[in-house]
Amino acid sequence: MKPSISSPGLSLDAAILHWTRSQAFRAPPKMSRSTRAITVAISRECGSGGKAIADLLGEKLGWPVYDQELVNYIADNAGIRSDLAASLDERRPNWLAECLEACTLGSHLSGAGYAVHLQKVLAALSCHGDCVILGRGAAQVLPRNCTVRVRLWAPLSHRIERASRERGLEGDVARTLETIDKERTNFVKRYFHKNSDDPRGYDLILDTACFTDDACAEIIAAAVEGRRARETS
Fold first, then answer.
1. DSSP strand E in the chain: where?
2. Residues 140, 210 contacting (CB under 8 angstroms)
3. At the topology level of CATH, where does 36-232 sit?
């Protein structure tokens, strides 16, 4: 039995505890097409509104949304501070390894090691389904037959305006966005050997400049229902 979810605020720790107690991390029973769990994995360009849309989608579906929680869980299990793991996440693994060594924290988490931990957590979440995962390479790692893989993008001018307004970015915002996107793409390519910019890796691609955040969430929710209908037909 899955934990009762009424909002996207369910913590990953609570979910992990529930699943562990119910032996959920063991090999799951084979599922028929009609009972297969579904996960939404969202990949996004920086400034395209990924977090806001993911949260709205979670509210519409009644599913938890996992983003920063994944970083914290992996950090806790690897014995390192979550803020250091966050700096590695999707971006600069070499920096984290060097920082840990310089700080002599007594722990070491290489980029490859982090990727292994991340894949295990993603697999556990996908096993149970009914959740939204933002970034973290989920769209490239999780099986396509039980995942609705979404890519959010927008023209650079739109992303600059949104990032400046919502994140308070100043200066050369275009370069900042480009750097973040490049680091995310390189993380997925280096450790998962996938190209997150390849449109063939997604079931749905949305230009968020053409829709409101709520409309984007509605479209993705409709895609989830369409996938369910196809599975049961």
1. 39-44, 65-66, 131-134, 147-153, 204-207
2. no
3. Rossmann fold (3.40.50)
